[in-house]
Amino acid sequence: MSISVQGLHFSYAHREVLDGVSAHAQGGRITALLGPNAAGKSTLLRCVIGALKPTRGTVLIDGAPVHRMSSRELAAHLAYVSQRSAVSSRFSVREVIGLGRYALPRDPGRVDAAIQHLALEALADRPYPEISVGQQQRVMLARALAQLSATGHLILDEPMAGMDLRHVHEGTSRLRKLADRGVTVVIAMHDIGLAAAMADDIWLLQDGRLVAHGRVDQVLRPDRLEAVFGVPFQWLEDGQGTRHLLAETRSFTVE
């Protein structure tokens, strides 16, 4: 099980957003997609799921070109959680999660299981537009779980945005368990420290180019990160053998 991106180029009008991106995400591993704002992360993910057609290059899901798959075939292979998920009607939380099965056979048991996994029982009958942004993101993750096959592919664009710390922890734990059972997880993130802690592999984008990809310890070098993000980084030991990646920040005084 894998996702392979091969020589991907994409342009909006005459502005090139992706410039020859090639990388590989393996089943059973979490791949974090990192880069500054406007690096091309969301565009790359939308090419991976077939929502955008690249100018050149291709994306293969388990060896099959994405652009040749029907919506039903794509739904059977991958689930996607977008950065901003808008639901205009007053669907309940349960109904929104059930939409994850729109191209697949109905399975109320899968919907119930997803609600339980994300601890959404108390919200299940609430109108989706009335819950908080962080809660909405948990609902969208549950919708993806209701869709996802046992060894499918999960693509996420900033899924932890708006979540409180407890639900971030629970969400990352859930993603780890999915990867451990064979799911391919590709997740775009801004939190580099969290990516260092949860991911197995990193794709590092800058100005539409993949400047590095590989294992966390290979890619997340302080000198490389400073060159990409413009601030110093350092690895710190916590005294228990665990290393933490931190950006060096300035302190400010408010008078």
Question: Could you walk me through the main structural features you see in this protein, from its secondary elements to its overall organization?
Answer:
Residues 251-255 have low confidence and may be disordered. The protein is an alpha/beta fold. The chain has nine helices and twelve strands. The protein has one domain (2-247): 3-Layer(aba) Sandwich (Rossmann fold), CATH 3.40.50.
- Strand arrangement across the biggest beta sheet: 6-7-8-3-9-10
Which radius of gyration do the C-alpha atoms yield? 19 Å
The appropriate CATH architecture is 3-Layer(aba) Sandwich
CATH class: Alpha Beta
- Counting DSSP E segments of at least 2 residues, the number of strands comes to 12
Helices and strands: which structural class? Answer: alpha/beta
Could you give the order of the helices and strands?
EEEHEEHEHHHEHEHEEHHEE
Count of spatially separate domains: 1
Major sheet, described briefly?
Answer: 6 strands, mixed
Query: Which topology does CATH recognise?
Result: Rossmann fold
User: What proportion of the residues form beta strands (DSSP E)?
Assistant: 25-35%
Q: For the residues shown, what is the average pLDDT? A: 89
Task: Give the end-to-end Cα distance, rounded to a whole number of Å.
Answer: 56 Å
Q: How many H/I helices?
A: 9
Give the overall silhouette.
globular
Assembly classification:
single chain
CATH superfamily: P-loop containing nucleotide triphosphate hydrolases
Poorly predicted spans: 251-255
The helix content, as a percent range, equals 25-40%
